[in-house]
């Protein structure tokens, strides 16, 4: 059963420390767990086994330009932020490297067409 989500995969967010990131879809999150390291940022969930299934309401999987991912609490994220072009391209390159999206693909912007 798919419930209502507060955060949408592909959405750009920023941490409370103003670090930009992109919300991962469930499939992209599984790929990130296998291929990327955890960033261990402040505001993350850290209990063992707590985040096997992110719910996108309180547990949000996010990938960052430095090549790490984290499951963050929704209270520690801000919406409607957009990174500078270099950071955006770094995240898209990481997603392309793990097989999540094509390098030139923008899922959120594609829906507006």
Estimated structural class: alpha+beta
Strand content: 15-25%
Uncertain segments of ≥5 residues (pLDDT<50)? 107-113
**Main sheet characteristics:** 6 strands, mixed
Strand order of the largest sheet: 3-5-4-2-1-6
User: How many strand segments?
Assistant: 6
Mean of residue pLDDT?
81
Shape, please?
globular
Rg over C-alpha atoms, rounded to the nearest angstrom: 13 Å
Discrete helix count:
3
Query: What's the SSE pattern?
Result: EEHEEEEHH
Helix content: 10-25%
Q: End-to-end distance, in Å?
A: 28 Å
List the helices and strands and how they pair.
Layout: E1 12-15, E2 20-23, H1 26-35, E3 37-38, E4 59-63, E5 68-73, E6 77-78, H2 85-97, H3 107-110
Parallel strand pairs: 3-5
Antiparallel strand pairs: 1-2, 1-6, 2-4, 4-5
Question: Would you mind describing this structure in some detail?
Answer:
It is globular, with a radius of gyration of 13 Å. It has three helices and six strands; from the N terminus they run ββαββββαα. The model is unreliable at 107-113 (pLDDT under 50). It has 113 residues and is of the alpha+beta class. A six-stranded mixed sheet has the order 3-5-4-2-1-6. It has helices at residues 26-35, 85-97, 107-110, and strands at residues 12-15, 20-23, 37-38, 59-63, 68-73, 77-78. Helix content is 24%, strand content 20%. Strand 4 and strand 5 form a beta hairpin.
